[in-house]
Amino acid sequence: MISPDTAKPLQHCNYYRSVAAVICFTLCLVGMVFSSPGATAPVIKSSSIPSLSTRQGLSQDSINDILIDDTGFVWLATQGGLDRWDGHHLVNIAGPDNILVNASIEKLFLDGQDRLWISSLESGVFTLDLTTSEVSLAIDRPGLATYQWIQSAVDFKENTHGELFVALEHEVVKVTADGGLEVVYTLPEALRNNEDIIRAIYPASRYLFVATSAGVYALNLTYEGAEVGSDEGTLDKRTQEVNYLGDIPADVNNQNAKFLMSDSQNRLWLGTVKGLFKADLTSLQNDLDDGVQTTFSAVNTQQNIWQIVPDGSNSFWLATNEGLFSLRKETSGSWRSVHMLEAQIGEQQLAKSKIRTIAKDKLNTLWLGTEMGGAMLWTPDNQNITHIQNLVGDPQPPLTNNIVWSLYEDSDEILWAGTGNGLTRLDLTNLESTMFLQQPPALADQAEIEQILPTADKNTLYIRSYGKVQLFNKLTGQTMSLPVAGQQGAEILAGWVYGLAVDTRGRLYFLSHDYYRYDPETQTVEKLEFADERLQAADSGYFLGTAEALDNNMLLSTADGIWAVDTQTLSSRLLYEYLPAEKASGASATSWEIQDDVLWLGFPRFGLLGIDIESGRVIRRFNSDNLLKTDIVYGIKADEQGSLWFSSHQGVFRFSPENRLIKEFVYGRELNVSEFNDGAALILHDGRIAYGSTGGIAIFDPSALSDGNAIQRPEQPMVISGISLDSRNLPLPMKNLSDSHLDLHHDDFGIEIHFSSILASFNAADNYVYELNRNGRLLSQSVTSEGKAAFAFLGPGDYQFKVAPTTERYDYNVTPGVLTFTIPYPPFRSPFAYAVYLILFIVAVWAYIRFRQQSIEKLARTERQLKVMGEAFTQTRDWVIVFDEKMLPMAVNPAFCRALGLSENDTADEALSQLYRRKPAIRQQMYEPLLSLEPGGFIRRETTVHAADGHHHDVIIDISAVADENKPECIDYYLMVFSDISEQKEAERKLVKMASYDSLTGLLNRNLLLDRLSHAIENAQDDATKVAVLFIDLDRFKGINDSLGHGVGDKLLKVIAERMTSLSSHQDTVARLGGDEFVIVRERVECTDTLSSFVAHLIETVETPIAIDGEILCISCSIGISFYPDDAITPAELIKQADVAMYTAKKDTVDGFTYFTAEMNDKARQQMSLENRVKLAYQEDRFYNQYQPIVDANNETIEGVELLLRCDMSDTPMSPGEFIPVLEQLRYIVDVTRMAIVRALDDLACWQHQGFHGYVSVNISALQFKAELHLDTLRKMLYERNLTERSMRFEITEGLLMEDSEFAQARIREFQDAGFLFSLDDFGTGYSSLSYLKKFPLDVLKIDKSFIEEVDVDPQAAALVKTTIELAKTFNMECVAEGVETLSQAETLQLFGCYNHQGFFYSRPLPADQITTLIEQHWPDVSSV
User: Fold this and answer.
1) How does residue 971 score in pLDDT terms, banded at 50, 70 and 90?
2) What is the Cα 1266 distance to its own chain's centre?
3) Which of 224, 384, 714, 1072 could bond 704 through an S-S bridge, CB–CB 3.0 to 4.6 Å?
4) CA-CA distance, 861 to 879, in Å (whole number)?
5) To 10 degrees, what angle do helices 1088-1102 and 1046-1063 make?
6) Is 50 exceeded by the pLDDT of residue 1?
7) What share of residues in the chain are helix, strand, coil (percent, to 5)?
8) Strand positions, DSSP E, 420-492
9) pTM of the entire structure?
10) What is the pLDDT of residue 917?
11) CATH code of the domain made up of 997-1156
């Protein structure tokens, strides 16, 4: 296969392909010389880089281009077709008539209209509409040469205006708005004749840069009057050649330009077959305008550049012939290129190291397109994982053996690794190693180093090998037995020991046939005696080491639990006792970590356990049943970011218990090994974490890896990538099908749904949990790792399919995917069809009975009786009676006898005689319809029959007068059939009750109420009387519901309903509209006095205390009353007017009820109009700030300002007294106040820059105070403007303090502790309870304007004000007088000792820009005026 890199790539017919092949061979030699003269070995040599190739179903292994769309689908253009990867499945795009099958796809581009542009070799350019999945031919232009071929697109670019430019081999075309093509540039004929082609384009603001195989050209897009091309083969007037080489000698390779892009710093990057160049794009265009040549900088003069992908402002990834390179700008200003990796498939080295294309997903993971190697998936984070292992053929292996059982680090960055054959000393600074104690392979088992522990001597280590503990001398590399005094101690140490740990004094703890401790200072072995009898050596597993958080107690793991042992007193405490299943397994905890007062335990069979140290209570338990993928947990370690690390037989995991996030490091993606060993885990001095495995050592750098921050994690919706049916092909969009709906056919079957989290690697077996609901009920639920769910046969219904990953990830957050679809009923099996079948069946049965009756008329009466009654007559459940033409009973069936308690052995005459004697009235009921029947006549009636079982049965009586066949004018006999429809009637009654009655109280609902009220109005019209409608609303019911629960609230409503029903007469109608609203309709009301008495009695009845569930509840009600025809003439209007009157009654604290008046309706309309105007003002942001100064009359300066909210409406102005209550009612007050505070702080910051040192005082509503007043948010807003807490004060009212005094007290204290001050506004107008001043920690008392108005003329008002001022002083509170409008008032207040004044005397409320002039103003001394 000929690469277009090193030859002119115009190879579209056999003749020119032959010519190109010769040129290619020659230039290939040149390209090899200049491709990598100083090529270095790649940094990444891992064989664990996953790849997507023909092994997984890729069309072909040579990748020309990779594109990742907005959904996350990966589109791969190969030399054998186009594929889409969804994280689990590959989908091949065939195109119309399979034109894209086994076609070389050269380039991909996704435009803003969700169209995927597909450039194919020799077939033209196609578009794939991702919404409709339709593939259509978009560009089919022949090459401008003597031979015929179809141009392919080599590049696509959109400019800032959304215009799409497409570069073909010989032309650049622009796609017009109507889908047409406009040629904007044509390659000159001289270049075409030399087999040169266009390779890349870049549309800048004024120039179109065209990279060709013979240089770069700039086309002036703003120039008018020039032709697009030149027949003479020269450049037209609009085109200039760009000299990017400067002083670099030109050759066929560095003139072969093939990549153009601009970065975030407006630099134009140019990649060639031999070199990479850059220039400032703005300067370049300016110089082209002036005819001056811009100097390009040569970043690299040797590399063959295929693509550049930004990785930051001064960081890039380069796709080159040698592989992947990183390009970074150094602090010195120079650019440094690092060879990262070569193209490979696992351990297989490809024939070509070329990386052809790069695509980066949301996780910054790189998709790398190779030649003959498919697509590689490489995560840059993998650079932060170091693998130390022995490789096949490695002349200097770093370890004595790949099986690593233990790890220990010296203080001088020396890592000691105990392996399956000896001990390795590894220098972490240069990874050079020294090996000790290594044995021949046949004796390797005896050289296993199972544990390494420090000693008090920095030159020695404790090592446990083959069940024995020895001292290892770091200097000599030799081992020796532990020096011990006494024969018994020596024998113990010479035996089998295990479970070693060292305490803070350097003493060695271990187990043999009992608990022991070796003291190196005294060289003695001490048997440990524990007072707790549960500590038996036979049950013990390991000494785990000392825990600083537990006062350096030694942790001991036994078969029963985890113990903390005091190393001084040997007293023990059971921290956690295993569950029975954990005890039975014999697998005790082998690793631990303490983090935030939680002891984490790792079990080799039961996962991860978190125990609160103080209480000993298990607070967290993680295993494969919830978040973890494994129950095997080894080597728990905590990093500085708050995450837990552990290893297992499936890799290494990073886990955040706080955020419940997990990150897997698995074989084939980040790791070269899967199984890790228990006991081989270590936090290095630099914060990295090392784990030993069956294949070497893996070292992780947590600080360089994602920390699971929810803000930084990209969010990816779960993708439903496809749906297939076994019954037919289903045309679907090539986009994420989540949140979409499908209407399937009734005969569709074999539904398979494909899904993926997209961002996961294709080697990661992510688990997904999915559920399928049918008509709101769970039909199926399962967990899968295959990325698909199949359902063979589904019945008719509305379905919802929902899927999500089972665990959250460190790297990204995946939201669930939801798909809905409907399967209709088959036409002949729908409920309607079954209803038709039933009707036809009933008709057929009736016809059969009719035919049967006509047949038996030919027989004698006796024969006829026997045949009519027959078996069917005997067994039928209907009650059947047959009378002759004289209406004498001929026969009754057993069902009739059983139902009415008659003897089945009696004749029909005897049976009916017995019935008549028992129930005489039934005789007339049965014979009366017979008398009215003519021959052939039929009557159907419904009635109720009291049966022998004591129940009343609803029956339908079908009575037929059968005519004589021979004499049609005569009746032959009568047939009377009783059909029991009790169940049907009961169902109808239930439906009627459900539709007409309240399910909780049994009262009428709104529908039946309107009907009853209509009848009442009709009766009133006939009787010329009135109808009264009482609308009743329970007061404080919501508080009972919220505090005691809905159960108590429902019981309360039932009791109230019963009381209303018992109080009302049988002519009254009692209904419940919903919630706590009831309506009573009283008819024939003659005067209001009678009704008032009833209402007073009703209020008294409702307010009678009620005992429910041990609680005594007292509730009141408000009643609004309207009359027909005085207030309204329709039911709906009557209820509406009563509702309006009820809201007025709520304000009447004396009577509790109010009659409707026209004035109320006007007020309601006015209130609605006001609400609409306030809503409009809120939506159009018509509220603005004004400020009124608070003047210190003593110091003659402005102490602060009060924020006053105003509304600017163009039609009719609204006062704060009008719109503020409505804002509070609509809950808009929170947002409006928040925005007003932001404006006020901005104004205050501006004033302080001008020398103002005062504060702004803000009125806070109850809603803002309870829910939206966040201390941290306010502080942040203040600090951002360089303001302090003293810059803002809050004004609250007495009503706010009354609602929840304890909450208010705590809330005020919280803000005061932070430095804020609180004012009690409008003091004196409410309850003015002195207890508030004592109970609540208030700072300022504001005297209401109503007291200031007459302070200088009314002695009583003056006394009240003076007392209030003295009261404020007593409580060490500031005092501010509001509404000061005259000099006399100001003087009086100053005389009383109140110097902080606010009012029109000083200034009206002003906009912020006018406050500036007042800040510098010195106010006159009132006392001197």
Assistant:
1) confident
2) 28
3) 384
4) 20
5) 150
6) no
7) 25, 35, 40
8) 422-427, 432-436, 449-454, 460-465, 468-473, 479-480
9) 0.57
10) 77
11) 3.30.70.270
